[in-house]
Specification:
The protein is an alpha+beta fold. It contains 4 helices and 7 strands, in the order ββββββαβααα. The longest helix is centred in the last third of the chain and has 13 residues. The site of one zinc ion (ZN) has 6 residues, from loops. This is DUF177 domain-containing protein.
């Protein structure tokens, strides 16, 4: 067994649309490499600093993430799988393993699909873009019924906007 403790620079595009690891920022690898029958088992963590923005209010988000890594790199001479499965297999190539795709998988799958600054972030008014934080009564008095229906759609995605919907509905009846 070998251990690999190393700081490397993050590759480009280590992330998703709203959130990810900046290219060149430090990635601290703390890995064990074990030779097993089929290949080399790599396990441990990759510690990265994640930056992005809240999907609701667009505030910046930043936090440290320890992504778990556990992957088996198969020896080249092992043919264990059907061809259509082979694309998913990591391989030891020329006695080297390429950790970048493993790092990418480990980090990207851990990132939130819809990042928020806080679980209860009130977000922005879908109509005027005003921040709803600290202004829960914010609403627009005159709503075209068609817009009201659209507002209802966005409110299902963000439950905490519900109080303002109720006040709008009361006005209409
Ligand atoms: Zn937010
Ligand atoms: Zn508004």
């Amino acid at each position: 067994m070998r251990t690999l403790e190393e700081r490397v620079a993050a590759p480009a595009e280590l992330g998703v649309a709203l959130i990810g690891v900046q290219e060149g920022s430090p990635v601290d690898l703390d890995l064990r490499l074990e030779a097993v029958h089929e290949g080399i088992l790599v396990s441990g963590t990759a510690s990265v600093h994640v930056v992005g923005e809240c999907g609701r209010c667009l505030d910046p988000i930043a936090y440290d993430l320890d992504a778990d890594i556990q992957e088996l790199f198969y020896f080249e001479d092992r043919v264990l799988f059907e061809e259509d499965e082979e694309a998913d297999q990591y391989r030891v190539e020329d006695e080297m393993i390429d950790l970048e795709p493993v790092l990418r998988d480990a980090v990207v799958t851990t990132l939130p699909f819809q990042p928020v600054c806080r679980e209860d972030c009130a977000g922005l008014c879908p109509e005027c873009g005003a921040r709803l934080e600290g202004d829960p009564d914010h609403h627009h008095g005159v709503l075209d019924p068609r817009w009201a229906a659209l507002a209802g759609l966005t409110d299902t995605a963000a439950d905490e906007a519900a109080p303002s919907t109720e006040s709008v509905e009361r006005e209409e009846s």
